[in-house]
Design goal:
Helix content: 40-55%
Number of helices: 15
Oligomer: single chain
Number of strands: 13
């Protein structure tokens, strides 16, 4: 469903909203009163409710739903915010001040993706486990199946754009996104990121102090999910509320473990940070402790195993990304994980 609903009798407001819809490439339904609005209220992906009809619609108490916005041609009185709350609107906005935001909101409705993408978090069970490398491998191979993006949530990591060979590509980085507010368009994010074909990356400019803002992370994850088939998040090992929130938003969390005594002991603590372990799986890198013993120690199933791969550092230094061949150890493990993830997505559809 890509047809938004506009509810207004204000002809000037309607003309402007229709112009923005045309620029976004969508054809809205128009309701001139509360009764007509109620008929299309539940079906529309987005409802733009004119301030002139907000009180009328609030009186008929339509069912609560997301993506309802009260829009006005001019500045709105304080009383309108009470009405917006009553009708379940997410915000009140003036068209003149929010033209770009409204266009992006409507543009997202024209996306051709059949469903939202899968979000996969990758975290190291211990220092040096290779979580960033595996996250980038998933992104590389995922981009051969559809649109993929690797999001760097580790300010102290090497940078996923560098690992993927995209550090010289022009595009937006976290530094710019953490200065923005409001809703982020899926298409705008996808087209702004440094990318190669269907693979994009979001990281920081090299060498600069790096921080993350919670509101920016939430908007980026939402837009990335709407605009890509696969979203891979490279997570730090630090125990921070924002990191735990991002992990909780992932459909699957992969913990990369080195199967040594020290590596498994550290992985046990890492896994214990996540109370809901139903979406957590292990990926073992290297040889040592038997995978079944690692699963028993952590209480988490092993999804894939891989030996160390020769020439990995050289491939990354040459800007080729970690996966040079799907027949290599890393390529085989990443392919196995992606196959399992696609089954997860199909089961959820």
């Amino acid at each position: 469903m890509t047809t938004p609903l506009i509810v207004t009798r204000d002809q000037s407001l309607l003309d402007e909203l229709l112009r923005l819809a045309a620029a976004a490439g969508v054809s809205p339904d128009v309701a001139p009163d509360g009764g007509a609005a109620l008929r299309g209220w539940a079906r529309a992906p987005v409802v733009l409710l004119g301030a002139d009809l907000a009180e009328e619609v609030a009186r008929i108490s339509p069912p609560r739903r997301p993506q309802v916005y009260v829009v006005s041609w001019a500045a709105v009185p304080d009383e309108m915010f009470r009405v917006a709350v009553a009708v379940g609107a997410e915000s009140v906005t003036e068209v003149g001040r929010s033209e770009g935001w409204l266009t992006e909101l409507l543009t997202d409705l024209g996306e051709t993706a059949p469903s939202e993408g899968l979000v996969v978090g990758v975290v190291g069970g211990s220092g040096g486990a290779g979580a960033t490398t595996f996250a980038c491998a998933l992104g590389q191979l995922g981009a051969r199946r559809g649109r993929a993006v690797v999001i760097d949530a580790d300010p102290l990591g090497p940078g996923v754009d560098r690992v993927l060979g995209l550090e010289e590509r022009h595009g937006v980085r976290w530094d710019g996104l953490c200065q923005t507010t409001g809703r982020l368009s899926a298409r705008a994010l996808r087209e702004a990121l440094p990318r190669r074909a269907d693979l994009g990356a979001l990281s920081w400019h090299a060498g600069e102090p790096a921080t993350l803002q919670a509101f920016a992370v939430r908007e980026v994850l939402s837009a990335a999910r709407r605009g890509h088939d696969l979203v891979v998040v490279d997570l730090p090992r630090t125990a921070e509320p924002l990191v735990d929130e991002v992990a909780a938003r992932c459909d699957r969390l992969l913990v990369v473990v080195v199967p040594t005594v020290a590596g498994v002991a550290s992985a046990v603590r890492t896994c214990a940070r996540h109370p809901d372990r139903s979406g957590v799986r292990l990926v073992l890198r290297g040889t040592g402790i038997d995978p079944r013993a690692v699963a028993r120690a952590t209480g988490i199933p092993v999804l894939a195993t891989m030996p160390d791969q020769r020439g990995l550092g050289e491939a990354i230094d040459l800007g080729l990304g970690p996966v040079r061949s799907r027949r290599g150890a890393l390529g085989r493990a990443a392919t196995e994980v992606l196959d399992q993830l696609m089954l997860l997505r199909a089961a959820a559809a």
